[in-house]
Amino acid sequence: MRCPVCGETLSLTAKSYLCRNRHTFDLSASGYTNLSRRPNISGDNAEMAAARYRFLQKDHYRFLKEKIRETAVSCGAAHCVDLACGEGYYTSVLPGERIGVDLSSASLRKAAKRDPEGRYFLASIFSLPLFDAESDFVLTCFAPRADAEIFRILQEGGSFLFVLPAADHLWELKEVLYPSVYPNKDQPQTPEGFTLVKHELISESSLLQKEELQDLFLMTPYAYHTPREAKEKLFALEELRVRFSFSLYLYQKSSSTGSSLTGSAEVLSSQGQAEV
Fold it and tell me: Is 127:153 a contact under the CB 8 Å cutoff?
């Protein structure tokens, strides 16, 4: 890890990270470390973090978690970084040494508790406390893509997995909330300095009970942009079958830089059904 103040190497002592210039960053009681230099910026609030934690504990997204681990293993990953890691649901299954970065202290407390063998840091994904070429695998799942920082921290030939909601993700949920439903946009540009290795679509559906529906809603941006009447309509439901669809883009850091590379990609599709 790199000191966010002076850029020197941070060494882990019993209860803190320390650089040779004596900048010290204590481990919190829950196990994560605050390396942010912008205290006025925060990530998801406690309500959203708690709802997501409860929902993910039910393992409706287990098929995605297993696909992420499978991909990391197939890439030979040994030093993994999860950017915008949230509660560590996906971070915890990454192979080898793993680091999670997020701006939400509420989420990081849960991540460190879920995965005591991982290392979790409060920091911006656009200003990472990591050295150049320190990682061989980077994951970004449902979060903005910090292309420049991802390129910087990845080793030559390293892998970047970008996970997005596919076009029909949560379609039935949106049909309850909104009079008109539009597919999610799912056509990201290949980041500069990378080649696209593979694009894969995976999908399952689950019959969600009342509390699960509410947690799913509260963990999404829809919680902030939905009229009260639509929210009440959803919360009145006893159950609803909902589609979960994800689009996974696997990129490799190229030896040829300075231009946007598209490459040729293998496109796969996998669909299934999962009962609650």
Answer: no
DSSP 243-274: EEEEEEEEEEE-S--SS------EEEEEE---
Residues whose CB falls within 8 Å of the CB of residue 51, separated by 6 or more in sequence, listed in order: 214, 215, 216, 218, 219
Q: Which residues contact 182 (CB under 8 A, 6 or more apart)?
A: none
CA pair distance 219, 89, nearest whole angstrom: 14
pLDDT for 44 equals 77
Where are the chain's structural domains? 11-271
Paired tokens of 123: 């920091």
- The CA angle 53-55-59, to the nearest 5 degrees, is 105
CA–CA dist 147, 192 (Å, integer) = 8
Give kind and range of the element (H or E) at residue 212. Answer: helix 210-218
Distance separating alpha carbons of residues 83 and 163, to the nearest angstrom: 11
Topology of domain 11-271, per CATH? Rossmann fold (3.40.50)
pLDDT at 274 over 50: no
Cα–Cα distance measured from residue 192 to residue 89, given in angstroms and rounded to the nearest whole number: 29
What pLDDT is stored for residue 2 in this prediction? 96
Euclidean distance between CA atoms 260 and 251, whole angstroms: 12
Q: How far apart are CA 145 and CA 180, in angstroms?
A: 28
Q: Residue 268 and residue 168: Cα distance in Å, rounded?
A: 16
> What pLDDT, in 10s, does the model give residues 131-171?
999 999 999 999 999 999 999 999 999 999 999 999 999 99
DSSP state of 47: H
Write down the pLDDT at residue 45: 85
Contact 80, 135 (CB under 8 A): yes
